[in-house]
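Homework help board

Subject: predicted structure for assignment chain

Our instructor gave us this sequence and asked us to write out the predicted structure in token form, then describe one feature. I got the tokens but I'm not sure how to describe them. Can anyone check?
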Amino acid sequence: MKSRLDDIESRLKDLIENRLVGLAWRKEHSPLAVLIVEALREQLLAETDENLPLPNVLVFAMHPEEAATWQNNPEWMTWLNQTLLETVRESGASFAAPPVIQIVADPRQPPGNPRITAAYQDTLPGSTAVLHLSNESVTSQSTSDRRAYLILHGSQFFPLDQPVINIGRRNDNHLVIEDLRVSRAHAQIRRTKNQTILFDLNSSGGTFVNGQRITQTTLFPGDVISLAGFMLIYGEDSGESSPVGGTSPAQP
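My token output:
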């Protein structure tokens, strides 16, 4: 797989140089092809099976101005998505599913240097996530000026607008995930003025952030959360603009 990833990186460099440099990317920016392949490589190294297909979700945590520019030019993401699919196929490798690119604004990221995370979108057929608000949560208000949210299924946005958000399979959770891998009371998110903290509630399948199992961790924009395999993406913004979205899966 190492030689195939090197081949993918080489092919992507040429294509991005010819298409995106001068539009979405400048030559002095970090090489986008290198960042993408490094993210794929890092996720593969975390897996026990070296012969797995490539992770199909790529989360770009970008400086807010760059994220907004990409949002206003969706054809760039569509082109990059399709180019990834074709380049990987030509190299003899494959994605676990049609690739999806998700862009999240992150003020911590300097311009031209996005943080890219790769993940497997491992959702069982028929699994769903539904929003459920208790009477108490409707009247509560978040203590933070930052608007935080979770992205589900690549396109659904769940606002984290309460100080405490409970997540699990049980119907009295704020976010109900109807997936048998998810525990009845699986995880909890607590928001303060300066932090968003994710807790695992002794779940049977575990809570993971960017591939690492956690009991408690601070979340940052672009973090990929897995609840026993059900994927969520954490994002936040200032509340002055809409959350940045992503691409639909590339067509084979």
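Reply (TA_rk): Your tokens look well-formed. For the description, you could write something like this. DSSP finds five helices and 15 strands in the chain. That's the kind of observation they're looking for.
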